[in-house]
Write a structure and sequence with these properties.
This protein has helices spanning about 1-30, 55-70, 90-100, 115-130, 145-155, 170-190; strands spanning about 40-45, 50, 50-55, 75-80, 110, 135-140, 160-165. With about 200 residues, it is an alpha/beta fold. The protein has a single domain, classed as 3-Layer(aba) Sandwich (Rossmann fold). It has a five-stranded parallel β-sheet with strand order 5-4-1-6-7. Strands 2-3 form a two-stranded antiparallel ribbon.
Length: about 200
């Protein structure tokens, strides 16, 4: 019986260590600010409010706009479908917003079928193949970046980079990182898990 409890303790401590390691990886990835020239910048969707970007979506779009103006890429891929109760997709709202900021239609590709991170990234992998993009850079809030890269690797997307949108509220940032660690664990152990929006 003592051997059983010793073994159980080792297993529990190992799982706790792996969880802490995962949280550390999520945090490290939340700080990435790649600015390498790439074939496309990919913006992960967030809520839209009656045709206007929510604060989260606006922050991601503004970040992508800055990268575009810094000549990181000539193309921005916007993801995000139509949420329940909405009449317009997140990606189309993002397109209108970036058009107003001066980015032409020729520089924007929209993906409006994905309703969560995994579905959006599956469509992004198809866009990457269709346009023969060799490398892409993901834009999302920092806590979301690790899972994005994990799913991108599972879809064999090759070279991917990231530029994280910062959350300045430290307490909120760590709450989101904690929540993200649980979602990522679900995805790791159940790859067909639909994976939240982020």
């Amino acid at each position: 019986m003592r051997t059983f409890f010793k073994l159980l303790s080792v297993v529990i401590l190992s799982l706790i260590f792996l969880w802490i390691f995962l949280i550390g990886n999520i945090y490290i990835n939340s700080k990435t600010q790649d600015r390498s020239a790439v074939d496309a910048i990919v913006v992960l969707g967030a809520s839209q409010w009656n045709g206007r970007p929510s604060p989260a979506l606006k922050a991601r779009l503004d970040h992508a706009y800055e990268l575009y103006k810094a000549n990181v890429s000539d193309y921005i891929v916007l993801t995000g479908g139509i949420a329940k109760g909405d009449t317009i997709s997140e990606s189309r709202v993002g397109k209108k917003y970036l058009n107003k900021k001066g980015i032409p239609n020729s520089g924007i590709i929209i993906e409006e079928e994905g309703k969560n991170t995994k579905e959006s990234l599956k469509k992004v992998s198809e866009i990457k193949d269709k346009y023969d993009f060799k490398d892409i850079l993901f834009v999302s809030h920092g806590y979301h970046i690790y899972r994005i890269k994990k799913i991108a690797a599972d879809y064999d997307m090759g070279d991917v980079y990231s530029s994280a949108v910062e959350i300045k509220d430290t307490e909120r940032k760590f709450k989101l990182i904690f929540k993200e660690s649980l979602i990522t664990i679900l995805y790791i152990f159940k790859p067909d898990y639909k994976s939240g929006k982020g």
